């Protein structure tokens, strides 16, 4: 992956619907070279797909929260059981294995507080290995996900 590939990824994150011709013009490449690079990025798994950026209200989502989960044991089996179980929980947008006081941070999106309560009590609390949960409600979204920042491999760190 070179700087041109990173530019392609950045451009597509900004506007995934732009035509190959427009992208090629922006990059100063031929359409065929741009197309081939995009296909290679897709084959290599760096472009995982294309989708619309939909407002949560359009999907009936009125509440988002983060649920911090602590496991009752930290062996491979408990970790794998939790990870398999959380994949099956409806309303989970993302799940991150983290360091610190908790083991996982789970981002959930639901209709309302009642649905959140049911999701936590019924679904998340029953995932194998869960010892403790703490829920943090999202009050406002200060900055929306705008895609991944492009790391500049030519720049050295501090």
Top CATH class of the largest domain: Alpha Beta
CATH topology of the largest domain: Alpha-Beta Plaits
Strand order across the biggest sheet? 2-3-1-4
Total beta-strand segments = 4
Rg over CA atoms: 20 Å
Globular, elongated, flat, extended or rod-shaped: what is the shape?
elongated
The N- to C-terminal Cα distance equals 23 Å
What share of residues are in beta strands?
15-25%
Write the H/E string, N to C. Answer: HHHEHEEHE
In the CATH hierarchy, what is the superfamily of the largest domain? Lrp/AsnC effector binding domain/regulation of amino acid metabolism (RAM) domain
Tell me the helix content. Answer: 25-40%
**Structural class by secondary-structure content:** alpha+beta
Note the main attributes of this structure.
158 residues; alpha+beta; Arc Repressor Mutant, subunit A; Alpha-Beta Plaits; 2 domains; 5 helices; 36% helix; 19% strand
Helix and strand topology:
Elements (H helix, E strand, L loop, with lengths): L2 H12 L5 H8 L3 H13 L19 E9 L4 H12 L4 E6 L6 E7 L2 H12 L5 E8 L21
Antiparallel strand pairs: 1-3, 1-4, 2-3
């Amino acid at each position: 992956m070179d700087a041109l590939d990173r530019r392609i990824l950045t451009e597509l994150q900004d506007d995934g619907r732009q035509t190959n011709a427009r992208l090629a013009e922006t990059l100063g490449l031929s359409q065929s070279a741009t197309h081939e690079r995009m296909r290679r990025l897709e084959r290599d798994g760096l472009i995982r797909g294309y989708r619309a950026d939909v407002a949560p209200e359009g999907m009936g989502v009125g509440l988002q929260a983060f649920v911090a989960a602590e496991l009752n044991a930290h062996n491979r089996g408990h970790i794998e059981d939790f990870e398999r179980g959380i994949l099956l929980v409806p309303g989970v947008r993302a799940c991150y294995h983290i360091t610190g006081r908790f083991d996982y941070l789970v981002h959930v999106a639901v209709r309302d507080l009642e649905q959140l309560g049911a999701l936590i009590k019924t679904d998340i609390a029953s995932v194998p290995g869960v010892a403790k949960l703490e829920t943090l409600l999202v009050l406002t979204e200060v900055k929306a996900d705008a895609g991944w920042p492009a790391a500049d491999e030519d720049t050295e760190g501090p």
